[in-house]
């Protein structure tokens, strides 16, 4: 084999193992599956239960089991609270990572009052690196457990980071710092063979789509569309992600919101209506509609 043919053969072999970018070699990510376009969605992060036979996409908490193995009838999404704590986990965070809990100027915890969740601190490179390591371990666990994708939540935690120790409107976190963590999560998910969903936050959709986010789980995009000038959340998501958008509207707002969503997009994407706490089927508060 002459040197030119040998060089070509070696290059071809390497291309099967490495992707080249910015002058450095990087391992090629394993293949990942995307959710079925317009596949009927069910949101089960409040507790798992057997989905309806027509359901094709289910999101569950990372500590729950997926519905079935990859490649089977249901596409399983692993919910991760990426930028805030789960209410029941605060003791774990305080014991293991107390410095990652965001505090105000006089030491008070920054809390998302709507859900009783502590906001996590992304302000320094050191803290972001430690948080990314935690999230990477959770993502790899989702893959090992048999999920197909991850759904990191509370991407917009900077909007809930007002200093509780002052009376001024003073956001302690920056969008740019959260975006660094979001980009790292996309790399971790894809390296584990998982797809990654953008959760809400349409204003950063171009950034996340550019990082390789694969689909969208959108809460109340119909409700919020038009609430501010130029706010068109649902349309913005569809423009970037096509019909890989899975929309949830909630029962504590008018039925007309859900009906309007179905009229506008129900023929193109999965739109569901659920109770606010997304409780398991069998409980009195459970509600689920699909169009």
From TrEMBL:
<protein>
    <recommendedName>
        <fullName>Glycoside-hydrolase family GH114 TIM-barrel domain-containing protein</fullName>
    </recommendedName>
</protein>
<feature type="signal peptide">
    <location>
        <begin position="1"/>
        <end position="27"/>
    </location>
</feature>
<dbReference type="InterPro" id="IPR013785">
    <property type="entry name" value="Aldolase_TIM"/>
</dbReference>
<dbReference type="InterPro" id="IPR004352">
    <property type="entry name" value="GH114_TIM-barrel"/>
</dbReference>
<dbReference type="InterPro" id="IPR017853">
    <property type="entry name" value="GH"/>
</dbReference>
<keyword id="KW-0732">Signal</keyword>
<dbReference type="Pfam" id="PF03537">
    <property type="entry name" value="Glyco_hydro_114"/>
</dbReference>
<feature type="domain" description="Glycoside-hydrolase family GH114 TIM-barrel">
    <location>
        <begin position="40"/>
        <end position="279"/>
    </location>
</feature>
């Amino acid at each position: 084999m002459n040197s030119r043919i040998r060089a070509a053969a070696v290059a071809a072999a390497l291309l099967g193992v490495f992707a080249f970018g910015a002058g450095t070699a990087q391992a090629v990510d394993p293949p990942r599956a995307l959710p079925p376009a317009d596949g009927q969605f069910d949101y089960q992060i409040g507790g798992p239960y057997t989905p309806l036979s027509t359901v094709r996409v289910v999101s569950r908490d990372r500590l729950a089991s997926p519905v079935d193995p990859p490649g089977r009838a249901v596409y399983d999404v692993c919910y991760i609270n990426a930028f805030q704590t789960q209410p029941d986990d605060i003791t774990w965070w305080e014991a293991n990572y107390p410095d990652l809990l965001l505090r105000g100027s006089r030491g008070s915890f920054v809390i998302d009052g709507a859900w009783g969740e502590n906001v996590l601190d992304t302000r320094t490179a050191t803290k972001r690196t430690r948080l990314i390591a935690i999230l990477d371990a959770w993502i790899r666990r989702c893959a090992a457990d048999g999920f197909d994708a991850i759904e990191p939540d509370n991407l917009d935690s900077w909007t809930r980071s007002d200093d509780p120790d002052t009376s001024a409107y003073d956001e302690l976190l920056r969008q740019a710092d959260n975006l660094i963590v979001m980009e790292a999560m996309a790399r971790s998910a894809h390296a584990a063979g998982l797809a990654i969903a953008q959760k809400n936050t349409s204003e950063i959709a171009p950034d996340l789509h550019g990082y390789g986010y694969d689909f969208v789980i959108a809460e109340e995009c119909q409700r919020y569309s038009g609430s501010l000038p130029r706010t068109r959340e649902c349309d913005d998501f569809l423009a970037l992600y096509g019909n890989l958008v899975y929309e949830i509207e909630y029962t504590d707002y008018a039925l007309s919101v859900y009906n309007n969503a179905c009229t506008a997009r129900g023929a193109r994407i999965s739109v569901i209506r659920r109770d606010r706490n997304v409780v398991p089927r069998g409980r009195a508060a459970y509600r689920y509609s699909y169009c």
